[in-house]
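To whoever is covering the structure queue this week,

Two jobs came back overnight. Logging them here so there's a record in the thread.

Job A:
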Amino acid sequence: MQTLKIINDNIRKISETNTLLDMLLEFEGVLDTFDMYAYKNWKKGEVINGPKLGRYFIEVALMYPYEDMPDPEALLRLKANDCDVKMYKDQLIKSKKIKSVEDTEVVVRGNAPRRVAKKEQHDVWIVEVKMPRRFVDEFSTEQIEAAEDAYVDMEAIQSGVDQNLENPINNADPMAPPVDPMAGTTPGVGL
Protein backbone atom coordinates (compact mmCIF):
# COMPACT_ATOMS: atom_id res chain seq x y z
CA MET A 1 0.00 0.00 0.00
CA GLN A 2 1.46 3.33 -1.11
CA THR A 3 0.74 6.75 0.35
CA LEU A 4 1.54 10.17 -1.00
CA LYS A 5 3.52 10.99 2.17
CA ILE A 6 5.93 8.09 1.57
CA ILE A 7 6.36 9.08 -2.07
CA ASN A 8 6.89 12.76 -1.20
CA ASP A 9 9.47 11.86 1.47
CA ASN A 10 11.41 9.82 -1.10
CA ILE A 11 11.30 12.68 -3.62
CA ARG A 12 12.49 15.15 -0.94
CA LYS A 13 15.40 12.84 -0.05
CA ILE A 14 16.40 12.60 -3.72
CA SER A 15 16.19 16.35 -4.31
CA GLU A 16 18.28 17.14 -1.22
CA THR A 17 21.09 14.78 -2.20
CA ASN A 18 22.93 15.38 -5.47
CA THR A 19 24.37 11.88 -5.35
CA LEU A 20 20.93 10.26 -5.35
CA LEU A 21 19.73 12.56 -8.12
CA ASP A 22 22.80 11.75 -10.22
CA MET A 23 22.25 8.03 -9.62
CA LEU A 24 18.63 8.33 -10.69
CA LEU A 25 19.62 10.20 -13.85
CA GLU A 26 22.20 7.54 -14.63
CA PHE A 27 19.56 4.82 -14.04
CA GLU A 28 17.17 6.60 -16.41
CA GLY A 29 19.94 6.86 -19.01
CA VAL A 30 20.45 3.10 -18.85
CA LEU A 31 16.72 2.53 -19.36
CA ASP A 32 16.96 4.80 -22.38
CA THR A 33 19.88 2.82 -23.84
CA PHE A 34 17.80 -0.34 -23.43
CA ASP A 35 15.08 1.43 -25.51
CA MET A 36 12.54 0.98 -22.72
CA TYR A 37 10.67 4.13 -23.70
CA ALA A 38 9.74 2.58 -27.05
CA TYR A 39 7.32 0.34 -25.13
CA LYS A 40 3.80 1.57 -24.40
CA ASN A 41 3.35 3.67 -21.22
CA TRP A 42 6.92 3.31 -19.92
CA LYS A 43 7.29 7.10 -20.03
CA LYS A 44 4.47 7.48 -17.48
CA GLY A 45 6.31 5.89 -14.55
CA GLU A 46 6.94 7.86 -11.35
CA VAL A 47 9.75 7.04 -8.95
CA ILE A 48 8.26 6.04 -5.60
CA ASN A 49 11.20 4.30 -3.97
CA GLY A 50 14.94 4.40 -4.44
CA PRO A 51 17.44 4.65 -5.81
CA LYS A 52 18.92 2.25 -3.30
CA LEU A 53 22.57 1.53 -3.93
CA GLY A 54 23.82 -1.88 -2.90
CA ARG A 55 27.16 -3.51 -3.37
CA TYR A 56 26.20 -5.11 -6.68
CA PHE A 57 22.80 -3.64 -7.59
CA ILE A 58 20.85 -0.40 -7.73
CA GLU A 59 17.13 -0.67 -6.98
CA VAL A 60 14.35 1.68 -8.11
CA ALA A 61 10.56 1.27 -7.85
CA LEU A 62 8.27 2.94 -10.39
CA MET A 63 4.52 3.52 -10.11
CA TYR A 64 2.03 3.65 -13.00
CA PRO A 65 -1.70 4.46 -13.02
CA TYR A 66 -3.77 1.28 -13.31
CA GLU A 67 -5.28 2.26 -16.66
CA ASP A 68 -1.78 3.03 -18.05
CA MET A 69 -0.14 -0.34 -17.37
CA PRO A 70 3.42 -0.46 -18.76
CA ASP A 71 3.94 -2.96 -21.56
CA PRO A 72 5.04 -6.25 -19.95
CA GLU A 73 7.18 -7.07 -23.01
CA ALA A 74 9.64 -4.47 -21.74
CA LEU A 75 10.26 -6.60 -18.64
CA LEU A 76 11.72 -9.30 -20.89
CA ARG A 77 14.19 -6.78 -22.30
CA LEU A 78 15.30 -5.82 -18.78
CA LYS A 79 15.65 -9.49 -17.81
CA ALA A 80 17.71 -10.13 -20.95
CA ASN A 81 20.11 -7.44 -19.65
CA ASP A 82 20.55 -9.19 -16.25
CA CYS A 83 18.05 -7.01 -14.36
CA ASP A 84 15.69 -8.49 -11.79
CA VAL A 85 12.20 -7.10 -12.36
CA LYS A 86 8.92 -7.47 -10.45
CA MET A 87 5.59 -6.04 -11.55
CA TYR A 88 2.50 -6.16 -9.37
CA LYS A 89 -0.76 -4.39 -8.63
CA ASP A 90 -0.96 -2.22 -5.50
CA GLN A 91 -3.11 0.49 -3.92
CA LEU A 92 -2.37 4.21 -3.68
CA ILE A 93 -4.14 6.06 -0.87
CA LYS A 94 -4.68 9.75 -1.48
CA SER A 95 -7.05 12.52 -0.47
CA LYS A 96 -10.33 12.81 -2.29
CA LYS A 97 -10.94 15.93 -4.36
CA ILE A 98 -13.34 18.13 -2.39
CA LYS A 99 -16.44 19.05 -4.36
CA SER A 100 -18.95 19.14 -1.52
CA VAL A 101 -19.18 18.72 2.27
CA GLU A 102 -19.75 14.96 1.78
CA ASP A 103 -16.14 14.69 0.54
CA THR A 104 -14.82 15.73 3.97
CA GLU A 105 -14.76 14.23 7.44
CA VAL A 106 -14.17 15.63 10.91
CA VAL A 107 -10.91 14.63 12.57
CA VAL A 108 -10.01 15.55 16.14
CA ARG A 109 -6.36 16.34 16.77
CA GLY A 110 -5.69 17.25 20.36
CA ASN A 111 -8.77 19.17 21.46
CA ALA A 112 -9.47 20.88 18.12
CA PRO A 113 -11.74 19.23 15.54
CA ARG A 114 -10.82 19.84 11.89
CA ARG A 115 -12.43 19.05 8.56
CA VAL A 116 -10.16 17.12 6.22
CA ALA A 117 -10.64 15.44 2.87
CA LYS A 118 -11.67 11.79 2.92
CA LYS A 119 -9.14 9.24 1.75
CA GLU A 120 -9.70 7.07 -1.31
CA GLN A 121 -7.81 4.15 -2.82
CA HIS A 122 -6.67 3.92 -6.42
CA ASP A 123 -5.27 0.85 -8.16
CA VAL A 124 -1.73 1.28 -9.47
CA TRP A 125 1.00 -0.85 -11.04
CA ILE A 126 4.38 -1.06 -9.33
CA VAL A 127 7.51 -2.06 -11.26
CA GLU A 128 10.60 -2.80 -9.15
CA VAL A 129 13.86 -2.84 -11.11
CA LYS A 130 17.05 -4.26 -9.61
CA MET A 131 19.81 -3.31 -12.05
CA PRO A 132 23.46 -4.47 -11.88
CA ARG A 133 25.80 -1.66 -10.87
CA ARG A 134 28.02 -2.23 -13.88
CA PHE A 135 25.43 -0.32 -15.94
CA VAL A 136 25.67 2.72 -13.67
CA ASP A 137 29.47 2.64 -13.67
CA GLU A 138 29.82 6.30 -12.66
CA PHE A 139 29.10 5.30 -9.05
CA SER A 140 31.21 2.16 -8.86
CA THR A 141 34.42 4.13 -8.18
CA GLU A 142 33.40 7.68 -7.33
CA GLN A 143 30.79 7.04 -4.65
CA ILE A 144 30.82 4.56 -1.81
CA GLU A 145 27.95 3.95 0.51
CA ALA A 146 29.03 4.86 4.05
CA ALA A 147 25.65 4.45 5.74
CA GLU A 148 21.99 3.99 4.85
CA ASP A 149 21.52 7.50 3.43
CA ALA A 150 25.04 8.96 3.52
CA TYR A 151 27.62 8.76 0.77
CA VAL A 152 31.30 9.63 0.81
CA ASP A 153 32.41 11.70 -2.17
CA MET A 154 35.60 9.98 -3.31
CA GLU A 155 36.31 12.78 -5.80
CA ALA A 156 36.66 15.26 -2.92
CA ILE A 157 38.95 12.87 -1.05
CA GLN A 158 41.11 12.38 -4.15
CA SER A 159 41.26 16.15 -4.58
CA GLY A 160 42.60 16.43 -1.02
CA VAL A 161 45.21 13.76 -1.74
CA ASP A 162 46.23 15.57 -4.94
CA GLN A 163 46.71 18.77 -2.94
CA ASN A 164 48.73 16.81 -0.33
CA LEU A 165 46.32 17.77 2.45
CA GLU A 166 46.83 14.49 4.29
CA ASN A 167 50.37 15.49 5.37
CA PRO A 168 50.19 18.72 7.44
CA ILE A 169 53.99 18.90 7.83
CA ASN A 170 54.50 19.44 4.08
CA ASN A 171 51.73 22.02 3.93
CA ALA A 172 53.81 24.57 5.86
CA ASP A 173 56.48 24.85 3.15
CA PRO A 174 55.61 23.39 -0.25
CA MET A 175 59.28 23.50 -1.32
CA ALA A 176 60.53 21.54 1.74
CA PRO A 177 61.64 17.94 1.13
CA PRO A 178 59.36 15.22 2.50
CA VAL A 179 59.95 14.40 6.17
CA ASP A 180 60.55 10.74 7.00
CA PRO A 181 59.22 10.05 10.53
CA MET A 182 61.50 6.99 10.77
CA ALA A 183 64.69 8.92 9.90
CA GLY A 184 67.35 8.87 12.60
CA THR A 185 66.12 5.68 14.26
CA THR A 186 68.00 2.44 14.26
CA PRO A 187 65.91 -0.57 13.26
CA GLY A 188 65.47 -3.06 16.08
CA VAL A 189 66.83 -0.75 18.80
CA GLY A 190 64.32 0.44 21.37
CA LEU A 191 64.45 3.62 23.42
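Job B:
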Amino acid sequence: MTSEMSAIALREATPGDDEFLVRLYGSVRQEELALTGWDAAQCDAFIRMQFAAQQLHYQTHYPTGVHQIILLDTEAVGRIYWANLKDELHFIDITVLPEYRNRGIGTPLLKRLLAQAASEDKPARIYVESFNPSLRLFERLGFTCAKAEGYLLLLEWRGENHA
Protein backbone atom coordinates (compact mmCIF):
# COMPACT_ATOMS: atom_id res chain seq x y z
CA MET A 1 0.00 0.00 0.00
CA THR A 2 1.04 3.58 -0.50
CA SER A 3 2.10 5.45 2.59
CA GLU A 4 -0.34 7.72 4.40
CA MET A 5 1.59 10.73 3.11
CA SER A 6 1.54 9.77 -0.59
CA ALA A 7 -0.91 11.55 -2.84
CA ILE A 8 -2.34 9.90 -5.94
CA ALA A 9 -3.33 12.36 -8.64
CA LEU A 10 -4.02 12.57 -12.36
CA ARG A 11 -3.03 15.04 -15.02
CA GLU A 12 -3.61 15.10 -18.76
CA ALA A 13 -1.00 13.31 -20.85
CA THR A 14 1.02 15.63 -23.11
CA PRO A 15 3.55 15.07 -25.91
CA GLY A 16 6.23 15.63 -23.26
CA ASP A 17 5.13 12.33 -21.67
CA ASP A 18 5.90 10.25 -24.75
CA GLU A 19 9.23 8.83 -23.50
CA PHE A 20 7.67 7.90 -20.17
CA LEU A 21 4.70 6.30 -21.96
CA VAL A 22 6.99 4.29 -24.26
CA ARG A 23 8.92 3.04 -21.19
CA LEU A 24 5.63 2.23 -19.44
CA TYR A 25 4.35 0.34 -22.49
CA GLY A 26 7.65 -1.54 -22.73
CA SER A 27 7.33 -2.61 -19.10
CA VAL A 28 4.34 -4.81 -19.95
CA ARG A 29 6.08 -6.42 -22.93
CA GLN A 30 9.35 -7.46 -21.22
CA GLU A 31 8.52 -11.14 -20.70
CA GLU A 32 7.65 -11.74 -24.33
CA LEU A 33 10.60 -9.67 -25.59
CA ALA A 34 12.94 -11.80 -23.49
CA LEU A 35 11.92 -14.75 -25.67
CA THR A 36 12.89 -13.09 -28.97
CA GLY A 37 16.67 -13.02 -28.70
CA TRP A 38 16.64 -9.45 -30.03
CA ASP A 39 19.25 -6.94 -28.96
CA ALA A 40 18.35 -3.75 -27.07
CA ALA A 41 18.03 -1.66 -30.26
CA GLN A 42 15.65 -4.17 -31.86
CA CYS A 43 13.56 -4.35 -28.71
CA ASP A 44 13.41 -0.55 -28.47
CA ALA A 45 12.37 -0.22 -32.13
CA PHE A 46 9.67 -2.86 -31.67
CA ILE A 47 8.31 -1.21 -28.49
CA ARG A 48 8.21 2.21 -30.15
CA MET A 49 6.44 0.82 -33.23
CA GLN A 50 3.89 -1.08 -31.15
CA PHE A 51 3.29 1.88 -28.83
CA ALA A 52 2.67 4.19 -31.82
CA ALA A 53 0.23 1.65 -33.30
CA GLN A 54 -1.58 1.35 -29.96
CA GLN A 55 -1.88 5.13 -29.61
CA LEU A 56 -3.23 5.45 -33.16
CA HIS A 57 -5.75 2.68 -32.50
CA TYR A 58 -6.95 4.33 -29.28
CA GLN A 59 -7.22 7.77 -30.88
CA THR A 60 -9.08 6.35 -33.89
CA HIS A 61 -11.54 4.19 -31.97
CA TYR A 62 -11.95 6.45 -28.94
CA PRO A 63 -11.64 10.02 -30.25
CA THR A 64 -13.19 11.37 -27.03
CA GLY A 65 -10.88 9.27 -24.84
CA VAL A 66 -9.27 10.86 -21.80
CA HIS A 67 -5.57 10.04 -21.52
CA GLN A 68 -4.09 10.81 -18.11
CA ILE A 69 -0.81 10.30 -16.32
CA ILE A 70 -1.03 8.73 -12.86
CA LEU A 71 1.10 10.57 -10.34
CA LEU A 72 2.29 9.38 -6.95
CA ASP A 73 3.11 12.62 -5.24
CA THR A 74 4.70 14.34 -8.28
CA GLU A 75 6.25 11.27 -9.91
CA ALA A 76 4.69 9.71 -13.02
CA VAL A 77 4.01 6.05 -12.19
CA GLY A 78 1.39 5.04 -14.76
CA ARG A 79 -1.40 6.00 -17.08
CA ILE A 80 -5.12 5.61 -17.39
CA TYR A 81 -6.97 5.94 -20.67
CA TRP A 82 -10.77 5.93 -20.57
CA ALA A 83 -13.76 7.12 -22.56
CA ASN A 84 -17.18 8.20 -21.35
CA LEU A 85 -19.28 6.82 -24.20
CA LYS A 86 -23.02 7.12 -24.75
CA ASP A 87 -23.86 3.70 -23.27
CA GLU A 88 -20.86 2.93 -21.08
CA LEU A 89 -17.77 4.18 -19.35
CA HIS A 90 -15.00 2.28 -21.12
CA PHE A 91 -11.58 1.74 -19.59
CA ILE A 92 -9.24 1.60 -22.57
CA ASP A 93 -6.01 1.05 -20.65
CA ILE A 94 -4.63 1.33 -17.16
CA THR A 95 -0.96 0.56 -16.59
CA VAL A 96 1.28 1.17 -13.61
CA LEU A 97 5.06 0.72 -13.63
CA PRO A 98 6.00 -2.70 -12.21
CA GLU A 99 7.75 -1.26 -9.15
CA TYR A 100 4.53 0.58 -8.16
CA ARG A 101 2.02 -2.24 -8.73
CA ASN A 102 0.08 -3.74 -5.82
CA ARG A 103 0.48 -0.59 -3.76
CA GLY A 104 -3.12 0.62 -3.88
CA ILE A 105 -2.62 3.17 -6.67
CA GLY A 106 -5.12 1.93 -9.26
CA THR A 107 -8.00 1.10 -6.93
CA PRO A 108 -8.96 4.66 -5.85
CA LEU A 109 -8.70 5.91 -9.45
CA LEU A 110 -10.94 3.15 -10.74
CA LYS A 111 -13.41 3.62 -7.87
CA ARG A 112 -13.66 7.33 -8.69
CA LEU A 113 -14.54 6.52 -12.31
CA LEU A 114 -16.94 3.74 -11.26
CA ALA A 115 -18.75 6.28 -9.07
CA GLN A 116 -19.03 8.52 -12.13
CA ALA A 117 -20.45 5.62 -14.17
CA ALA A 118 -22.96 4.85 -11.41
CA SER A 119 -24.02 8.50 -11.18
CA GLU A 120 -24.70 8.45 -14.93
CA ASP A 121 -26.48 5.06 -14.68
CA LYS A 122 -23.96 3.40 -17.03
CA PRO A 123 -22.01 0.18 -16.86
CA ALA A 124 -18.22 0.27 -16.97
CA ARG A 125 -16.32 -2.10 -19.24
CA ILE A 126 -12.74 -3.12 -19.98
CA TYR A 127 -11.05 -5.79 -22.08
CA VAL A 128 -8.47 -7.84 -20.13
CA GLU A 129 -6.47 -10.91 -21.09
CA SER A 130 -7.32 -13.93 -18.94
CA PHE A 131 -3.67 -14.20 -17.85
CA ASN A 132 -3.32 -10.53 -16.86
CA PRO A 133 -2.72 -10.14 -13.10
CA SER A 134 -4.96 -7.04 -13.10
CA LEU A 135 -7.93 -9.36 -13.63
CA ARG A 136 -7.96 -9.93 -9.85
CA LEU A 137 -8.19 -6.17 -9.23
CA PHE A 138 -11.20 -5.83 -11.52
CA GLU A 139 -12.90 -8.84 -9.94
CA ARG A 140 -12.37 -7.32 -6.46
CA LEU A 141 -14.03 -4.14 -7.72
CA GLY A 142 -17.10 -6.12 -8.81
CA PHE A 143 -16.44 -6.63 -12.52
CA THR A 144 -17.74 -9.86 -14.04
CA CYS A 145 -17.02 -11.51 -17.38
CA ALA A 146 -19.61 -10.39 -19.93
CA LYS A 147 -17.95 -12.08 -22.91
CA ALA A 148 -14.91 -14.27 -23.59
CA GLU A 149 -13.16 -14.50 -26.95
CA GLY A 150 -10.29 -16.91 -26.46
CA TYR A 151 -8.01 -15.34 -23.86
CA LEU A 152 -9.61 -11.89 -24.23
CA LEU A 153 -12.31 -11.15 -21.66
CA LEU A 154 -14.79 -8.30 -21.73
CA LEU A 155 -15.33 -7.40 -18.09
CA GLU A 156 -18.34 -5.41 -17.02
CA TRP A 157 -19.23 -3.55 -13.85
CA ARG A 158 -22.79 -2.52 -13.11
CA GLY A 159 -23.63 -0.23 -10.24
CA GLU A 160 -26.60 -0.73 -7.95
CA ASN A 161 -28.97 0.70 -10.57
CA HIS A 162 -27.98 -2.03 -13.02
CA ALA A 163 -28.92 -5.11 -11.01
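Note for Job B: The chain has a mean pLDDT of 92.

Please reply-all if you pick these up so we don't duplicate work.
Q.
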